[in-house]
Amino acid sequence: ELKVEQNPLFLSMQEGKNYTIYCNYSTTSDRLYWYRQDPGKSLESLFVLLSNGAVKQEGRLMASLDTKARLSTLHITAAVHDLSATYFCAVAVYGGATNKLIFGTGTLLAVQP
Amino acid sequence: DGGITQSPKYLFRKEGQNVTLSCEQNLNHDAMYWYRQDPGQGLRLIYYSQIVNDFQKGDIAEGYSVSREKKESFPLTVTSAQKNPTAFYLCASSMPGNTIYFGEGSWLTVV
User: Fold this and answer.
1) Res. B15 pLDDT band, cuts 50 70 90
2) What are B57's strand-pairing partners?
């Protein structure tokens, strides 16, 4: 059974600080997604990482993928309050014609002024 | 505008009642999905469909049913067999292998 684990589950940080969220998964996959969810809202796609060594950056967020280690990271640089949300990683699972995502438990990020 | 429309946004279900959540997409995506999210938790896959008239069970399909009669529509029925249906339900769609996009979600509460 595929497992996707994120840590930490909860992160409280001050504005201006840096931090990293980790996503480990238990089976082979070459496609990993990061999503953001605001309270009571739907999921917003942040990044799609398609290959080993992939790195993508958008504003203060940077995501990377190491398929050999089965690890993805989401790095936050100089955090601001607007980044407060829950962040999910999701791993793509393929089997014949099937294509589905298995989600991690999420990391609740609270950026304090 | 292109997107995924879920309705209703809020729904109350009485004990023993079946309810249906609607999901419509105009993105011309082949694949559609239903996920359930419980408070403070991640998403769990209920059902997914790669093509019209075909769908597969996800990890928590018991107590749910779906149909895929049209490419743009993938309704989810929460049956009375689902003993703990109170949750946030998210519909999603994608082209196979591409980013999965989500609708705005539907809140279901048992009263």
Assistant:
1) confident
2) B47
